[in-house]
Design goal:
three-stranded antiparallel sheet, globular, two-stranded antiparallel ribbon, about 0% strand
Amino acid sequence: MAQFHSIPEFTDLTVTSLQTPDASMEANGFSVTDTPIESVSLSDYEKQLASLQTYLGSVPYATESVDEMHQKLEEIVGKIYIAAKAQNWLVLSTWDGMLQCWLLMRYPMPKLTRAKLVRLYYELSMIPGVEPRIIRSWTDMLSRLLANKPGSKRKLESTDLELPWKPLWRALQKELWPKKRIQDNTRNVVNILLYVAEQCKRYFPAREIPEMLETFLPLLTKDTVLSIVPVMTSFLPPTHTHIYIPALFKIWEAFNSSVIDDRLLELVGFLSEEYISGTSRDVGEKGGLQWKDVGIWTHAEWQVLIGKGLNSMNIPVGATQGASTTAGHADTLSNKDSLRIKKTINRFSAYESESPQLITKPSYPMIGAFAKVLVYSMAVDGDIRSDENQKGYVAGSKALDSLDRVITSTESFFHPSNTGQWTSTLTAFLNRLTAEFIKRVKEEQQESCKTPMTRRLTPQIRKNFVAILRTPALLAMFSKGPASAGYAQSSLRVMAILEPGMVMPELLERAYGGLEIVNETHRTTAVLNMLAGVALPLVSESTWSGGQRHLIPLLELSIPGIDLNDPSKTMCTTMFIVSVVQHIKLGDLTKSSSGISYFSDDTNAIMDNVFDVRQGADTDMPALSKEEARSLVRDSTASFADWVTSLVRRILALYENLPEEGGRRNITGGKQEEGVLKSIKAMMDVVCLHLSDELFDLVLNLLYDYATTNAKSNAVTAFGQLVACMARVRPDKTMLKFLPHCISQIEEEIKHGASSVRTTSSHAAIPSDTTLHWNLSILRGCLGFGGTVLLKYKRQILSLLMLLVDKTKSERGYTSTGRLITRTLHTLAETYPTNSRFVNSDVWDDPAFNKDHNIYWGRLYNPEDVVIEWHVPNNDEVAFVLEILDHVFLPAIEKVEALLNTTFKWDNVDRNDFCRYLYACRATWGGLSTFFKEQPKEVVNPCFNDVELAEMIVVALDMNAGFTLTDASDLRYQKAAAYRLRYGDVCQRAAFALRQKIGSEDHIDAVIGVTRAIDTFMLGYGLNRSDFDSLQKNYDQARDANRFWVKQRENSRLVFLKRAQVYHSGRVYMHSLYRRRSALDDRLLGELVELSLSPYTRVRRQAQNVLQNVCGYYVRSTRLILPSVFDALGKGSDPDRMKGALYVLWNKGTDLGFHHRYLLSLLDCQHEEKPSIQKLVNTLSGDCLAHMPEEVVHTDAYLLATPGVEAALEDLIAEFSSTFVNQQLLKAAVDKSSMRISRRGEIYINTWRYVQMAAQFLLGLLRRDTVAPPEVVKFFMEQSVSPQPTIRYIAQKAIVKVLAFIKFRSYSMSKEALWLDEWRNPLVQDIEITNFENFMLGFDESLDFTGGLYVDKIRTGFLAWTSIIKAYRAVEDSSGIQFESESQSCLTVIRDVVSNADYYSKLLALWSQESGKSGGTIELRKENILFIKSLGK
């Protein structure tokens, strides 16, 4: 039984704040170390509340209190309770999603509640007979609740929760050694269950370690070692390790296996870190590990570790060309079933990469663990090596001395000229060494560190560590492989923080050389990547005092790197500039005197009075005083103006040489050119943001002069993005400069016929329209930011939009207008953060800052110190939005409605008008995704069946998310909602009307436009999944750029602004999920289905993509559309409609309620002979087999008792109020469960047309808990002698499975034993062995030594013996094995067929045929042997 140790929780606090489990935070892009308060004086709950406040303070609206969110949690867990009680596992899994949403909101969960939920999901993950997909979802939730991500603070300690390990071992045994006759090689449950064990092993009781060893060790043989070792490392708790570590080391030394090396190196790496203080915080003295010869290891154990670590490097030894170890080859020759066990956790390292330099994560499972062992074993534990004492150790550390020997022996392999398969391994090793080392350094600087002072890293160890790794890292930074170079640069980045004086001068020497050489591109890009990684030491005088004066020269040298002919170098250059400029202000300090006294105690001047710019490096350069050094930096800032001017002109020159825009998406060039433009835009965003007022005006005038004297058709989009970078910073100045000119130019161009050629599809721009598009692009950039600034130009903007909607008639013209409308409305009506400079606005505007901003360069913030500014729509902006709706959207929608009445007589003019006005309507709502909050909808067709309950259908998590209008009684709300409803209705009418124009290809563009309009209506609310994921990814990259270890709290202000944006977006995202369907939504779904079956390929593909996305957000939408899709597969259907229907099914899968019809619909497709359709049917049938494991039906109608789950549910009740469970709903849910069980048998099909496909389906539908129909068995027996090899193989496999299930049911004493493969042959008898030597000697004697019993197989005794051996009694003449009566009809059918005189002769003739496939064998096949064995049994 699990036990829970109650810890007082301050549940009466109602602070409105947020927190979520570490695992889900990391999984959703949030760092667990963004906000933790590292103070020993605060309790865990107080830390959570303090963390909460930083999130709530970052959003501009009121949020829910802790009590309110606890009530929401109670509702969610209440539904989970009811679903679990009713054994409705599919419904329970949908509420898992709601629990994940709740966790994403970052609110605290009481520790005892968390522990009991963990217990529930632990029990759920072990119940037999449940579909693997469902078990996987429960395992994921278990991991999120436990939040055991290495490097983060655990939510639950072993004192808070205790879990039983035996039920998990019982469930795992079936998967470890599956029955051969029913084995499914695609099944992955063994890895899922091992993952559960890995996550929960800390909570297994340490007192049961001896029993675990008694269970596992006797099962270890040479055939099972690759299975048992992962089991042992996954199950054994990380406490009292002295009980099992010696045995594991003996096994490790005895076997040559990369699997064992992986598992045990990872274990010892974890233990080295866990017990760095000698004891663990929650297991006491007896449970921890004491220090020994090297860290917590003996000298003998250390030698084994170093040897295994060196073997993992893949370095050739002597004349060998391959790896120095044969462990991997040895594994390939082992038992193949053991190789099904894969690494169930992060194989590379215990931590996610902290480095932005890493390009990929290689699969070197042992490297990270080996690095951890070395780093966490370092301490002063020996004599210090010196000139007088050569027998000592480097810095007095045995582990550091071992590292020195490892690096010395491998140093030549780091050189770029000696590249091989070992290069990425070695550089990854460097990366992990430095990452683990800085993590330990930072941990030992925390107040909460428990490592004794005598065991901590010393300055001497730190310096020697950097000295050992510096040379190989400097060599490897120029590696030919980008991944290897990235790892080396990442390690140098960390070393530059650890000992900047030892590393930075070396890096700068190579940097100047690499940037000055223009003909060695590889060297230049490597240098730029390296400089981007060490940006912080370069700009921050508190990190390294000698870097700031190199900044301007390096920036100037980098400008030639912006080269359209070398995209990779350009992107590296922009990355370097971004990395540097995001930490500084670009302003001239020579125009004002400094306000800092260099000899005062100013808090920002944190350096000594005199320092050496190389800080410890060997140099003949004279030392500079603080005043001299800062004076050099101030003087260098005078070059900022020239540098910015050169940068802008370089970019404009690059724009002039771009290829012409074109293609379907009107993009500039190919992927490389698009990548260059995106990187330049990102760079200019940062550069413009940090310009001083003088430099901003300089750049603004430069761009204005260029814009008014040029109109480049190849740089329309790119130049607009450049203007947008300026508008983001100072929208008032930018609009004042550009808006009047652009409006007058656009009006003039329209007046003279620009965009007057009617088109409805993408095309190359007409040269005469270039000036119009140029100014439209600039205007989009201006209006993309500013909010209230747009109100000053309200009349001009409104009149311009009306003019453009009415007069732009080319496709490029009206789509540009649409994007302008969207940007304008988004700027006015949405909530978004502003001002992402590197310091808060009050600091930026402080005159003292502007006099001495160089001392602020590189400033990092704690989350509570960041002041985030938001744009929140005010009443004037809302009024302007409604005015745009009245004057732009309303006339456009009216014209669309008028055109719909005359579709039967459309000409080209009408089609063009329809497309452009509909696009304007679509663009309007594309910019208003959070303008008003939807009210609950009336669901006309809930798509329920009689075994479901409406109350158990999942609902969205209603969170405050900053919607502009939320009061349904507000006239403004009603007006906007009515307009949007009218837009949706027009979309539906348009889709219906255009579908009637069958055979008219002229309408394809219009139909595509309608499909996209429906997409905007149905998915343009809130935030979709891809945009949310993109924001998270962007935040992750920004966070990691300045983070050196996983618990680092300080980061740049921009990172916390992005974090706030992601958190706000997460709240908005909640409103996009689990949406209900109104009658209009149902009609639109119906239209999308029809469009997905269109005879035109373009229309079908577009509609299918939209339909797939829509079904992911609207509840029961799949169930609504499937009948129409199945109907399209019937006889008489057009081949194109059938093809469309098959693609829809391929994308969506099926609902269990439609399982029967789904399979029959595929089998009934024989009437269409078109090859492309037949190929689709075959592909689809093959794919659907993966979703037909035998547990599917049993999962929906579960029969077994679940005492563990029941006990966990009862424990959970105490955590919530008395109304936690709705008793009436619970009773109704339980009643529905019996109805589901009564219909279990309806899934079988009894008709088929395709023999092979039908055989595959029937094979997938065979279940161990149900007797197969005799006619199905007869079909399989008849096809077992089919001349078609594939059909024959399927039929024989099915007969083997049928007979195996008959045997299982006959031998099983209970249904639980049936699903756990714990059936028992009635002839089996257990023999208790007391003396194993005598037992083995008995094999040399007569057979009656066991009393007439026969021992078939001995699967123990390699290391230890089990106490019981299985033996079999001989079958006597008078008695035999009786199979279940229900299966006698099936056995009779089989007996009748095989009794046929020519059955075996046919079978042998077919088996003796030579294979027509290449590589065929004439040997007897194992599946044929299994078939005969099954018939014989």
